[in-house]
Amino acid sequence: MSFIAILGTVAFLVMLEPDLGTTIIICATSYIMFLIAGGSKAHTIGSLSILGLLFLLGVAAAILEPYRLQRVQTYFSLLFTGEVADPRGTGYQMQQILIGIGSGGILGKGFGQSRQRFGYLVENTAFTDSLFAVILEELGLLGGTVIVLSWVFFLWRGLKIAVNAPDKQGQLLATGITIWLVLQALMNMAANVGLIPLTGIPNPFLTYGGSSTIVTLAGIAILLNVSKYTTNAK
């Protein structure tokens, strides 16, 4: 039961930060690596129980923390009515994100021509959490599609490195790093287009942030090191 104990402890501590988005990424990545490693049925049931418990804790956290509850309410309002609730208050950030994306259209306004990044988006999120929305405004649907396809390509290459890894450790490292970064990017982009509530998760390689960039580059370095010793060098 060591896997369950370790995952549960780490997830609980991250939840206390509080950081629900990072907790989801850690649990999902760990669980996928666990399945690839050939985990037992008992551990699988235990892991799913932890994920279920964390989901309930996340719901409780959303209720207890006003800002989380506001994000969830804004999301469900957009989901079921197609409109942002309280666009001048709690829904202001999502409203500005959607304005930027909508004004970008297919081809965008042009590189560096975003209006939303000049004081409309909250604080400095135009360079962090909401950068993908700014990219969609400047480069349009076409530019956003290129970024999404780039992540699909990264996923394919990362999993290919994992499949051709020389040993089990290399396989798990490559899989874990690939899933971690892709899932992080997916959550960021999904939040920026209203598919999930705003999470504050950065988009690797794109969003501003020193510590995030350092950790991301360290993960890429490990992934490249594994690829150096793959059984298929092509």
Detailed description of the structure:
This protein has 234 residues and is mostly helical. It has two domains: 1-64, no CATH class; 86-228, no CATH class. Helices cover 69% and strands 0% of the residues. The protein has eight helices and no strands. It has helices at residues 2-15, 20-36, 41-64, 66-81, 92-104, 131-163, 168-192, 210-228. It comes from candidate division WS6 bacterium 34_10. It is found in: Membrane. Its EC number is 2.4.99.28.
Contiguous low-pLDDT stretches (5 residues minimum) are none
Task: Give the strand tally.
Answer: 0
Largest beta-sheet details: none
Report strand %.
under 5%
Rg, rounded, reads 19 Å
Query: What sequence of helices (H) and strands (E) makes up the elements?
Result: HHHHHHHH
SS class: mainly alpha
Q: Total number of helical segments? A: 8
User: Shape, please?
Assistant: globular
Helix content: 55-70%
